[in-house]
């Protein structure tokens, strides 16, 4: 049994495994292997290809191509041994491409520290999931960081891999994770990676273009089901979706801000300097621990809507 034979079983199984067990870090993980491949290719490519941008393009092509080919080959080879083996491999690769539970668990550490009255611990926990400096943040700013992280990563950590999983199976989802990993490792605008990581950063933008906007729409639809404002989500999504340095991240953040009735964005400190970012949303409600709980519900609600909508389409086309 391959993905093509039972896509619904693979997707539902992967989503349930992610929700119940989270990321299986104790088992061999494709993303770890992808990271090692990227690290092993950087120096040889830089030596062989003097033009850093061309070398970066080759890194992108090799990494994504190898990731897709290996995933597809593993599923195919396992299915030749036994249909159940092919299904199991497809299920595992689909499972490790999803990250809703991990996003929830990591961000929850921040709020748990606040609930314990330990502001320094909350700042440390937040520093693991955001790029800004956190050492001097007060509770509302810590909450803002956690909410922004969950909102943004609902797009590229939850909806995007699920989108590619239902679109092209586990191999395509793993290829997307390769793009994501490339961006996180070499997609920086510093001296070392400005040219070498250019292709990876731009391709990550392309890969997330549709999923980011889909995430915004899913949040609008999920908001009333989660006890939040669907109208607010739609209004702020349309108004502030482009108020972000990223061409994609603003859409889920805007929809979340509108649904929650809060303002995101604004001033952040990076390397000792204050960076003023455009604001997203209106301050109708204060940023609180309840805000964080609501954005987590919104994340899961958006994921559930995508799964339900896809299953309905599969059933419709089978009729």
UniProtKB/TrEMBL annotation:
Positions of transmembrane segments: 52-71, 78-98, 158-179, 217-237, 298-317
Organism, as annotated: Geomonas propionica
Primary role: Converts cobyric acid to cobinamide by the addition of aminopropanol on the F carboxylic group.
Pathway named in the protein's UniProt entry: Cofactor biosynthesis; adenosylcobalamin biosynthesis
Lineage, broadest ranks: Bacteria, Pseudomonadati, Thermodesulfobacteriota, Desulfuromonadia, Geobacterales
Protein name, as recorded: Cobalamin biosynthesis protein CobD
InterPro entries xref list: Cobalamin_biosynth_CobD/CbiB
PANTHER family found in the cross-reference section: COBALAMIN BIOSYNTHESIS PROTEIN CBIB (PTHR34308)
Entry's family note: Belongs to the CobD/CbiB family.
Membrane topology term: Multi-pass membrane protein
Subcellular location: Cell membrane
Keywords linked to the UniProt accession: Cell membrane, Cobalamin biosynthesis, Membrane, Transmembrane, Transmembrane helix
């Amino acid at each position: 049994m391959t993905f093509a034979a039972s896509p619904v079983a693979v997707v539902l199984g992967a989503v349930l495994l992610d929700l119940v067990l989270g990321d299986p870090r104790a088992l061999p993980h494709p993303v770890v292997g992808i990271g090692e491949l990227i690290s092993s290719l950087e120096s040889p490519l830089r030596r062989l290809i003097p033009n850093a941008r061309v070398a970066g393009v080759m890194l992108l092509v090799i990494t994504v191509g190898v990731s897709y080919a290996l995933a597809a080959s593993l599923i195919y080879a396992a299915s030749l041994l036994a249909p159940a083996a092919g299904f199991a491999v497809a299920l595992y690769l689909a499972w490790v491409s999803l990250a809703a539970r991990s996003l929830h668990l990591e961000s929850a550490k921040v709020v748990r520290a606040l609930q314990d009255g330990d502001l320094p611990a909350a700042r440390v926990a937040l520093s693991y999931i955001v790029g800004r400096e956190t050492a001097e943040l007060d509770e509302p700013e810590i909450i803002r960081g956690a909410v922004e992280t969950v909102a943004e990563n609902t797009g590229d950590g939850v909806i995007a891999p699920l989108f590619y999983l239902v679109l092209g199976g586990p191999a395509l989802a793993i290829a997307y994770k390769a793009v994501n990993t490339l961006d996180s490792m070499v997609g920086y605008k510093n001296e070392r990676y400005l040219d070498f990581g250019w292709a990876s950063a731009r391709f990550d933008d392309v890969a997330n273009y549709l999923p980011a906007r889909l995430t915004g729409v899913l949040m609008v639809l999920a908001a009333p089901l989660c006890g939040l404002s669907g109208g607010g989500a739609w209004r702020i999504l349309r108004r502030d979706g482009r108020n972000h340095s990223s061409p994609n991240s603003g859409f889920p953040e805007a929809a979340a801000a509108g649904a929650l009735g809060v303002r995101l964005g604004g001033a952040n400190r990076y390397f000792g300097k204050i960076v003023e970012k455009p604001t997203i949303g209106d301050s109708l409600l204060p940023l609180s621990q309840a805000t964080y709980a609501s954005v987590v519900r919104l994340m899961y609600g958006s994921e559930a809507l995508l799964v339900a909508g896809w299953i309905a389409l599969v059933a419709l086309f089978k009729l």
